[in-house]
Amino acid sequence: MANTKELSVEDKLRALYDLQLIDTRIDEIRNVRGELPLEVEDLEDEVAGLSTRLDKLKSELEVVEDNIKAKKLAIEEHKESIKRYTKQQESVRNNREFNSLTKEVEFQELEIQLAEKQIKEMKASIEHKKEVISQSKERLEIKSSHLKHKKSELEAIMAETEKEETFLTEKSAEYQQMIEERLLAAYTRIRTSVRNGLAVVSIERGASAGSFFTIPPQTQVEIASRKKIITDEHSGRILVDSTLAEEEREKMEQLFATI
Prior knowledge:
Distance between the termini: 26 Å
Helix content: over 70%
Shape: rod-shaped
Strand order of the largest sheet: 2-1-4-3
Strand content: under 5%
Number of helices: 6
Largest sheet: 4 strands, mixed
């Protein structure tokens, strides 16, 4: 910011237009990447989500398998109880004891039937979970392969443009230091509010670049005199004359060629 007060209006306009050309070049580089960074991020989230779901399903499968083992052990215990109660019936002293043991045997048989029913249900659950796991694995493999491809694509683009983008970003910061805060704030505000990021534009065929609104001849003369900062009353963009714009474009093209 040290020398901003010493700059003439013309110097300020040139610095602003140079900054615009640099920032536009950065925009072009980033547009080449397009939606790829977001695509990669979304795929990473999806792969992570599928992996978590797969781990959860595998864990649930293990729990069901453990429950089946526990039920099978319980069935064996019930069978042992039936053997024991049946044997005890051989040495009972009265009908009451015999009937009591018979009820115990019946209860154990019912417990076996219930456990077998539960095992059957759990086996069906296992088959379903295995099918879901298989589908999830297949989906995870597809998404992981897609992610690998997209990452490779992004890395290739980054490798091509990283050096240029770093250089231009540093240059953008350098030019920003040459512009007074009020002007820089206006430039940033305009740039972020318009779709194409153009805050500083030249006069082309009597209108501001990209606009159909004609600029009055007197205003065009004032812009060409470079004595004050003038904005387009329709778009709010800062205006520069075509000669200045052409000179700065040539200068920036030489700069870009050195990268």
